[in-house]
Design a protein that fits this description.
alpha+beta, Beta-Lactamase, 6 strands, 41% helix, globular
């Protein structure tokens, strides 16, 4: 009986450790807001060419865990993308999530009217490749919208 109890306790501890390691892979809302602000400051200090190059680097300073930065013009054109270089230069204003939500269009409308905000939608998680619930924080800086999102 002691062996069974010991096994169950060890199994529960192992599951708990695995759960903690998975949670450590996800960025927090606070980290997303901080990274958006850091990217805005970097762009202001270094200009678009150098700033976009760093944001586009998937191993650069604007990628951490499952968090990465994207930058759009106010019309929804992707100017920089920390995880998918194929999106750069594309007009994404009509892009829909898995539920048909035009999340880029919504983001641009909020950015134009309020300057910043949070938004929920579904998106492919770069770590798991699954479609997950995502919350993205974004801010309007001059004529750019800088965004960073977390997966739930």
């Amino acid at each position: 009986m002691k062996k069974v109890v010991s096994f169950v306790v060890a199994l529960c501890l192992a599951i708990g450790v695995v759960g903690v390691s998975f949670a450590a892979e996800n960025a927090t809302a606070k980290e997303a807001e901080a990274m958006v602000k850091k990217a805005a400051a970097f762009l202001k200090a270094n200009g678009r060419e150098k700033g976009f190059a760093e944001i586009n680097n998937p191993k650069g300073k604007f990628t951490n865990k499952d968090l990465y930065i994207t930058v759009y013009d106010l019309n929804g054109k992707c100017l920089a993308h920390g995880q998918n270089a194929k999106m750069i230069g594309k007009d994404l204003i009509e892009l829909k999530d898995a539920d048909g939500k035009r999340f880029i269009k919504e983001r641009m409308e909020i950015a134009k009217s309020k300057g910043k905000g949070w938004q929920d939608y579904k998106h492919t998680n770069p770590l798991t490749k699954a479609i997950d619930e995502k919350s993205t924080y974004f801010e309007k800086h001059d004529e750019l919208v800088i965004a960073g999102g977390i997966y739930k």
